[in-house]
Amino acid sequence: MTDELRGIGASLTDSWPAFDNGVEEPQPLPAAPLPAVRPSVALLTDRYELTMLQAALADGTAHRHCVFEVFTRRLPPGRRYGVLAGTGRVLEALPHFVFEDAELAYLEENGIVDRRTLDYLANYRFSGTIQGYVEGEVFFPGSPVLQVEGTFAEAVLLETLILSILNYDSAVASAASRMTSAAGGRPVLEMGSRRASEQAAVAAARAAVIGGFAGTSNLEAGMRYGLDTIGTAAHSFTLLHDTERDAFASQVASLGPGTTLLVDTYDVRHGVATAVEVAGTGLGAVRLDSGDLGGLAQEVRKQLDELGARDTKIVVTSDLDEYAIASLAAAPVDVYGVGTSVVTGSGAPTCGMVYKLVARADSSGVLQPVAKASANKASVGGRKAAARRYGRDGHAVEEIMVTGPDTAVAEWTPQSDDLRPLLAPMVVDGAVDSRWVGPYGVANAAINHGMVRAELPRGARRLSDGDPAIPTVDLRLDDLLD
Amino acid sequence: MTDELRGIGASLTDSWPAFDNGVEEPQPLPAAPLPAVRPSVALLTDRYELTMLQAALADGTAHRHCVFEVFTRRLPPGRRYGVLAGTGRVLEALPHFVFEDAELAYLEENGIVDRRTLDYLANYRFSGTIQGYVEGEVFFPGSPVLQVEGTFAEAVLLETLILSILNYDSAVASAASRMTSAAGGRPVLEMGSRRASEQAAVAAARAAVIGGFAGTSNLEAGMRYGLDTIGTAAHSFTLLHDTERDAFASQVASLGPGTTLLVDTYDVRHGVATAVEVAGTGLGAVRLDSGDLGGLAQEVRKQLDELGARDTKIVVTSDLDEYAIASLAAAPVDVYGVGTSVVTGSGAPTCGMVYKLVARADSSGVLQPVAKASANKASVGGRKAAARRYGRDGHAVEEIMVTGPDTAVAEWTPQSDDLRPLLAPMVVDGAVDSRWVGPYGVANAAINHGMVRAELPRGARRLSDGDPAIPTVDLRLDDLLD
Lengths: 482, 482
Hints:
- Chains A, B: InterPro entries: Aldolase_TIM, NAPRTase_N, Nic_PRibTrfase-Fam, Nic_PRibTrfase_pncB, Nicotinate_pribotase-like_C.
- Two copies of one chain form a homodimer.
- By secondary structure, chain A is α/β, with parallel strands linked by helices.
- Among the domains of chain A are: about 45-175 and about 350-370 and about 425-460, Alpha-Beta Barrel (nicotinate phosphoribosyltransferase), CATH 3.20.140.10; about 230-335, Aldolase class I (TIM Barrel, Alpha-Beta Barrel), CATH 3.20.20.
- Chain A is built from 18 helices and 19 strands.
- Chain A has helices at about 5-15, 45-60, 85-95, 100-110, 115-120, 150-155, 160-180, 200-210, 220-225, 235-240, 245-255, 270-280, 295-305, 320-325, 340-345, 405-410, 440-455, 475-480, and strands at about 65-70, 80-85, 130, 140, 145-150, 190, 215, 260, 285-290, 315, 335-340, 355-360, 365-370, 385-390, 395-405, 420, 425-430, 430, 470-475.
- In chain A, the strands form four sheets. In chain A, strands 13-12-1-5-3-17-18 form a seven-stranded antiparallel sheet. A six-stranded parallel sheet of chain A has the order 7-6-11-10-9-8.
- In chain A, helix 8 packs across helix 9 (about 220-225), helix 11 (about 245-255) crosses helix 12 (about 270-280) and helix 12 (about 270-280) packs parallel to helix 13 (about 295-305).
- The longest helix of chain A has 24 residues, at about 160-180.
- The radius of gyration of chain A is 27 Å and the shape is globular.
- The first copy, chain A, starts with a helix and ends with a helix.
- The model of chain A is unreliable at about 1-20 and about 20-25 (pLDDT under 50).
- At the A-B interface, helix 1, helix 2, helix 4, helix 7 and helix 8 of A face helix 1, helix 2, helix 4, helix 7 and helix 8 of B.
């Protein structure tokens, strides 16, 4: 080490003191444990939402009536549809978007906003209206998956939280849908908690189930959303015991012969033989978590059948994604367990949804469409209504965005039999419609997804790269009424 | 629509009822809002940790003394080093890993574990020992970044939570370090909250700062970890106003001329001219969020200088990653704002760290090394000590993993001047060392990262694909003592 660097090593070696960071005084060590999470979600927010609020409160525009829309400009490369998830979580979070003493003190002490803004925040409750696509619905470029209407002040504050939730949850649900599609009728289980941030893992489990997964390993998600949970043992359990046989015997004694035994800690063939010896031919399943899963599944199926364990299922769980699942279609696999790839959106870990002001009242209170003109980021101004058009064979053919005079668009419902409207009320005058939240909301979202996916053109379910399954079509209200 | 599909549309159209999901009775609507998060982190856990516990409690092995190690088998493709982040958050979470009435009731009512296990969980507090690399440290394949020692029961329960935190936080810190490296001395700001799950966004901001970022837009992260927060206004603020000039005037009146004005809502050249007219030549900065940032920055710098605003900085913020930052090295950019790419790990959204049992007591209480033999997932058994070896020029040359008799490895400290030990005590007999948590822990981690990155061979900071910057070398204790 150079002398300069040696100092570092020395300071680290020397009973691992805290560094002299030279910036601030050493802080007192916390007396009580720091919280792992805090109940208010109000500061899960970009600072600029609050500085914009401050300026708008000062100039009076904060109270202008506004319409914000959440949409994505494009799907991830090659994807044919997206799956909306997270709406229920947005609605669950809304009552917790409150600025209480701790939040206000932080904002004040750090000079983030002024007194007038603090007073506004202290009384903040969202009192506007939210409409959106029903959770589990598919979406395409431009689909207004959520519409938030209220004063600028109350609506702009929600931007970061809404996007955080919808972007991640929808990324997971979109990946999950491809996986359950690739799996055909075989169940797919979510077991990726360890590859997602700890609270994101709960959202991921929920979103995966909306995308068609049959269950999750995540207990918190099971508790909060009534999801089926799964899981029996890891390699560490086998290694803990003196022999693989001891481990299997212990697991069967504890969980019954219907359990799933992990047979690849040492030698798979030996593991399968021991598993059936210990559990009998009524063994529920064996799990393979390494190696060439297709070839291995063939061998294990043959071995199980020869041992008389014809009903013992084969679960595979090693680094699967939609392509690996598809490649195992001909293998004797009964259940897929997916981890990393589903919780990270299988190559598209966020959706790129944006929260854009599309209309706001002018100084005389009349709603005017607005849109920026930035390069590559231009968007269509004005509130949108949305509907999906169906062909004679019952399949979706177009995603229709309707624009026009604001009141007419807001009140529009399709008169034509081939159009299905896509925006449903979620929050009215600040009151959350509880049909869309909790376990019931998730169950409905999963059913909804199964139905709407079945309506897509056949090509939508191909895994290969392609264009969006149906085009997004902008229509003026006048054109529709013709 | 076919008749079958028509029913769906009809049911959705018909005042958007909840679906008849045919599976469960309609549940009562929640009387009180569902919580957005819950204080206990104990169920952020894969179910199999609890079922393993149940079986091990029944057969007596639950109380065997164990050593688990967290490490990654490989870095993401092409990466030359990883950056450890999340350790402080693990330590902060530990006191909240408690099973209280709500958790126990869920586990009991859903038959997840038996009575004996419930009783164990009700009294659960981690009472073991944790050592690890200091947060901000770099790591390589095999580096034992965390070592957890205790009974099987107490240590296995923490697996999922520890991996969730370390895998995500380290993915972000690793990406962040490449970005700050590419930026040279220019500040890089984290503004990706909307592209990460809402609580993950807080962790991401923290990890980005450990990787060298100068601040974050995330207020919760600012509050919890004492980070500098940044942000002024979005396009919606300009669109809210009747003219861009009105918006700029309002912002300057509220935040002062030192603020950053977003000048690309309509026409950049016009926006810059208006910005300087409104704020004067003392304008703090202009922000460019679209278009060809390099070319635009040249033009804007020229325009600002001609207007006399020579000290007005240029902030760029559109879809930057380490490569885009590097490509702007010659452009007159003062500050980079990074969103999506840092919070999603710039192509590597999780680290692939695993939590492996490496040693456990046998039936006579003697610690024995253990390792599985699974294809492609074999690992070295036994507790490891770790040290980094330095060459004469002060740069790191090897990551050394020391194995041997357990007690000797546990007590090993390098006697040689060219070796720096890497494992520091974090938790002793269940007591968290508070030097590593809270704002102080983050500040230290960021400083630590700057120091250890400077020690890496020069090639480590290349963005192009390559091998790990230094090799991981396994040594037996006997070899070292020679």
